């Protein structure tokens, strides 16, 4: 199982446990809906920005090697 699958599975598991606890009135996540909206939108913005930056730039060692291969084979217009 790859890292992304593990993270998605963990998030799903936490959400399902939380839903069951709320259904039985045993637990609720503290905070107002406004607080959670701010938290979730900030989290979404930060994570999507980080993912977009890494996927669209050659910042890792593997990415730099890929860029060199593309340049050698004239498959990119990157300088």
Straight-line distance between termini: 37 Å
Beta-strand content estimate: under 5%
Globular, elongated, flat, extended or rod-shaped: what is the shape? elongated
Number of domains: 2
Low-confidence stretches: none
User: Average pLDDT across residues?
Assistant: 82
Let me know the largest β-sheet: none
Tally of separate helices:
3
SSE order, as H and E? HHH
Quick one: how many beta strands?
Answer: 0
Structural class from helices and strands? mainly alpha
**Residues in helices, as a percent range:** over 70%
What gyration radius follows from the Cα positions, in whole Å?
20 Å
Account of the protein in words:
- The protein is built from three helices and no strands.
- The protein has 79 residues and is mainly α.
- The chain is 72% helix and 0% strand.
- It is elongated, with a radius of gyration of 20 Å.
- The chain folds into two domains: 1-30; 32-79.
